[in-house]
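Reviewer 2 asked us to include a model.

Predict the structure of this chain.
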Amino acid sequence: MANVSSVGIGSGVLTSDLIDQLVSAERTPTENRLNSREESVTAELSLFAQIQSAVTDIRLPARNLANPDTFNELTVNTGSSAFTASTNSKAIAGNYTLEVTSLAKSQSLSSGTFADSDTTQVGEGTLAFTIDGVTTNLAINSSNNTLDGIASAINEESALGASATVINNGSGYQLVITSSETGVAKAIEINVTDSDGNNIDGTGLSQLSYTTGAQNLIQNQAATDASFNFNGIAITRTSNTVDDLVEGLTIELKGTNTGSPASLTVERDDDVVVEKVQEFVDKYNALRALIVENSQIDPSNPAAAGLLVGDTATRSISNQIRNILGRTIEGLGNDPVRGLAELGISTNNDTGNLQFNEAEFREKLESSPESVAAVFSKQGRTTDGQIEFLRAGSDTKPGSYDINVTQLSTKGAFTGASALAASTVIDGDNDTFTLSIDGNSSATITLTAGTYNQADLVAEIQSQINADQSLSNAGVSLVVALDGSNQLTFTSDSYGSNSQVQFLGVDATTLTTLGIDAVAGTAGLDVEGTINGVAATGTGQVLSGASGTDVAGLLVEIQGGATGSRGSVSYIEGVGEKLVDLINNFLSVDGTITAKNERLNSELDSIALSRAKLEERLTNLESNLVRQFTAADILIAQLNSTQDFIKGQLEALAGTGSDD
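Predicted model (C-alpha cells):
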C-alpha cells in the first residue's frame, strides 16, 4: 500500500488507492503462479517423503531375509523337566533322547562348631588347597586365625577355586568351604602345616585338614560329575551345562529322570521364516499401492493427473526393485529353486502386487532349505570339505572362483632339545619357568615337586600352563606332548606367522632334565595361495581376496588338505541382500531419493527467492508510482492555482466593464 497519505490531494484522482490497485494488478499473476508452483512442489515433496518411508520400510524385512540365520531359526522341545536346551546358529535339526541319572555337584565341607566367629583362634600355619591339580597356599597367622579371618583369606584368593562362608547353626558357628565349580575333578584337598607341629590331629589349624589320611572337616556334599544317557550312550560331564555334546546345542541339566528317557527335539522354526517373508511382501505391496494411487491419469480431466505421472525418480526406484524381484539368482543354476517365482512369490498380472503362496513356500522350505535361504540371503559355498567360506565384503561380486593353495598354514611350536628320562624328579632346580605364547608372556609357572613318569610329567606341565592367569586372560593356549623321540613338544593352538612358543626363563637344570632352554621355537606359517587366479592375502588359515578385484573382501579358511588346486568357492547374493544394497544406494548422498529431495527443496528455495524478488520489484514500482503521482499532483495543483488566478482576473475584468 502506498505510504504517502497526501497523494491525490491536488488532483483528487491520483490517489494512494489507485497506486495500491496498480501494484496489486502487477502482483497477482506472478503471485498466483508462485503459489500454484509452491503448492505443487510441497505436495510432491510430501508424497515423496511417503515413498521414501515406504522404500525404507522394505529394508528391514529385506535385511532380515538377507541374514542366513533367519533360515536357521530353531525351536527346541523337551519331554522332561529334568533338562532344558537352547541352540545357536551352528545347531541343526535333530531328534534325541536324554536320561539324566545324576547331576554334577560341587563339594561342600564344614568345620566343627565354634563359640564365635571373630574371637576364638582356630590355629596358625599354612593351608594348602589343591583343586584340579593346582595348589594354592594360604598363610594363617594372628591377623586372620579366626573363622571370619580364614573365610576372608580364602575368598580373597580368586584363583583358589573355592569360596568360604561362616554360618550360625543355632548352637554356634561353622566354617563352610565350597568348591567354585562342580565335578569330581574340582574336589578339595586341604593339607595343613600346623604351627603346633601336628598336621593331622583335630586341634589347632589341623582341624581344617581334609586329606585321605586326615579328614577333619565334615563333607556335607561330595563333588560329583553329571551322568546321563544321550541316545542310549552313557555320558559324563563335570558341569550341568553341557555345550560340547552336539554342536550348537546347549543342554542344562536340572534334575533326574532315571528310568524314563525323554525326548529332546530340535526343529527348524518355519513359522518365523514365513512371518518374515509375509512382512516383506506386505511392505512391497504398500509401496506399490502408494505409487499406483498417485500415478493415475483421467483422459477427461488431464489436470487431475496424479503427482507421480511422468516422475522419473519414482519410475527408476520401482523398476530397479522389480528387476531384483524378478531376477534368477546368480550361482543357483543347478539348485531346485533359483528365484522368488519358484518359491510361491509371484507378481499379479492385473495389479503388479506380489502374491504369496504360503503352502508352496513351506513345501520348498521343507525340501530345499539351503536353496531357499540362498534366494534371499548371501551365501558362500565351497567344493572342498576342508575349505570354509567365512564371509564376503561389500565389494565382493557374486560368482564362482577357483582356489589354489601354495602353502598350508602351520602352528608355532617348541621342541625340547633332548628326550625325557623314564622318570624325572622335579625340585627347586627345575620347577619354574616362564614362556610366551603368540607374543603373550606368562607369569612364573611352578611345577609341583615330585617324581614323575613321562605321561604324568606332561600332564603336570600342561595343567600348570593352563592355570596361568596371564595366558588365560590373553586368550592363548598350547598343547604339551611327547614326540616320537620322547622329546617334549609345546604347540600353540593358533595358526600363522603370529603363532609362536618361546621360553623366556628356565631353572638351573631345566635344560638337562627337561630339554627346555630359554630360546624361541619355530614360528607358524600363514596360508598362501590364489583366489580367482590372483594372489590372496594369508593370515593364519584365512585367505583374503585381493583388493580391487571381483573377490575383494572374500574370506575363506583353509582348514587342512594338500597344496594345489582346491576346487572353488561360490558367492551367492540373494534378493534380500541385493535389496538392502539397492535401498542403501537410494538413500546415499548421491542416491535417487536424496537427489529427488534435494531438487524439490531447491525448487522451494527458488520459489522463495522469486517471492523476494517480486517484493523488491513491487516496492520499486510503488516508489516510482508515488513519485510520479506526487509530481503530477503538484503540477495539477499548480494548474488549478493558475486556473483560479485567471478566473479571478477574468471575473475582475468582467466586473469593471459592467461598472462602466
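Confidence is low (pLDDT under 50) at residues 1-5. Residues 592-659 form the longest helix (68 residues). We have added this to the supplementary material.
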